[in-house]
Design brief:
Order of helices and strands: HEEHEEEEHEEEEHEEEEE
Helix content: under 10%
CATH architecture of one domain: Beta Barrel
Shape: globular
CATH topology of one domain: Elongation Factor Tu (Ef-tu), domain 3
Number of helices: 4
Oligomer: single chain
Length: 359
């Protein structure tokens, strides 16, 4: 009796001479909540770490041997970007590649008219092109919502170099033909075939210009399970006068009528944050080419401090680039003197603002 109850609870079916078949039911329809785990087609990145009891000298030797045997020549670890011979001409309908950045904080700037604006600092750290997939070969496992996807290619970009000895063979194999060491982070960008980049091409903050508008995509701060007061901004009941048990509760959810149920879209307690969000049309106010940092408009860039974000040209029709940007990317050294480049409306505190004349 107990065995049959356990089998029913675990979803086991007994047929014939004790042959067991486990049945798994997964709803393939519309899901009311997003999946919190990574898709199953992602490759495992890190290997299982064991305590090998090696000295510091032996670890350094093993790392050097792993880099030499990885298949990347040391002269090609930092590949200089060079424009291709068949470089296309930019048009407003072409989509360029994006970059991977880290959100490093907020900083105020002042315009020349005295207005104070809030900005967010994004650092583009060690970005390289890993692979380009042409439109006829690009078959995504998860189809993005991009118009004319069959006419677009895909560029795989990696950021932040890591030690190949800490990665699995499958994950490290993605970078074998790119000319760079494996990266910690990967991102795909849907681009036009004219904007393709060779593997190993570095991407810096000069990929964008001051005054341009960009879109930033990131994952919001994970707050966990929260109530309606914090999740949806409910006011709550008075804490001192009135009822005693509904200070922070939602109250009536309006599920009456013929169909007594919870209607879709009802604001209720649940998981808050950890969702992919995109903020569009942010102006680039300032650029520092030495540390690859850019100041973008606003303080609502999704993600925590130190989190990863993806930056690319805006898709808003009224804020697209009217002049040709660095296409397909920026090659060479910046032409401006110094490391900082300011937008024309921003006040540069390094310049003199008050001058005195001799009487």
């Amino acid at each position: 009796m107990m065995r049959s109850v356990i089998n029913q609870f675990l979803g086991l079916r007994l047929s014939g001479n004790c042959s067991v078949m486990v049945t798994q039911v997964r709803d393939k329809g519309h899901l009311s909540r997003p999946r919190q785990r990574n898709p199953q087609w992602f490759l495992r990145k890190e290997i299982t770490k064991y305590n090998d009891l090696m000295t510091a000298e032996n670890k350094q030797f093993v790392n050097e041997v792993g880099t030499d045997n990885y298949g990347v020549k040391k002269d090609n670890l930092v590949k200089t970007a060079e424009p291709s011979a068949n470089e296309a001409v930019w048009t407003p309908n072409l989509r360029r590649c994006g970059v991977i950045a880290r959100k490093i904080g907020q900083y105020p700037l002042w315009l020349k008219n005295g207005e104070r604006i809030r900005t967010t600092l994004l650092q583009i750290a060690d970005n390289h092109v890993i692979k380009y997939i042409p439109p006829e070969e690009y078959l995504p496992a998860q189809v993005p919502t991009v118009a004319n996807l069959h006419k677009r290619g895909c560029i795989l970009v990696g950021s932040e170099t890591t030690n190949p000895a800490l990665l699995t063979k499958e994950y490290a194999g993605i970078f074998r033909n790119s000319g760079v060491l494996p990266k910690k982070n990967l991102a795909r960008f849907i681009v036009s075939p004219e904007a393709q980049l060779e593997p190993g091409t570095p991407l810096s903050v000069n990929h964008f210009r001051i005054g341009d508008f960009v879109d930033v995509r990131g994952k919001t701060v994970d707050h966990g399970f929260q109530g309606v007061v914090k999740r949806h901004g409910f006011k709550g009941m008075p804490a001192s006068h009135g009822v005693t048990k509904t200070h922070r509760r939602a109250g009536n959810i309006g599920g009456g009528g013929e169909k007594g149920r919870v209607w879709p879209g009802t604001k209720m307690p649940g998981h808050m944050g950890n969702r992919w969000r995109k903020i569009k049309g942010l102006r680039v106010w300032r650029i520092n080419s030495k540390y690859n940092v850019m100041w973008v408009q606003g303080s609502s860039v999704p993600g925590p401090t130190g989190g990863l974000v993806y930056i690319y040209d805006t898709i808003l029709p009224l804020r697209r680039n009217k002049e040709a940007p660095p296409f397909p990317t920026f090659y060479g050294e910046p032409q401006q003197e110094g490391d900082d480049v300011w937008y024309e409306k921003v006040h540069n505190f390094k310049s003199e603002s008050i001058t005195y004349e001799n009487e």
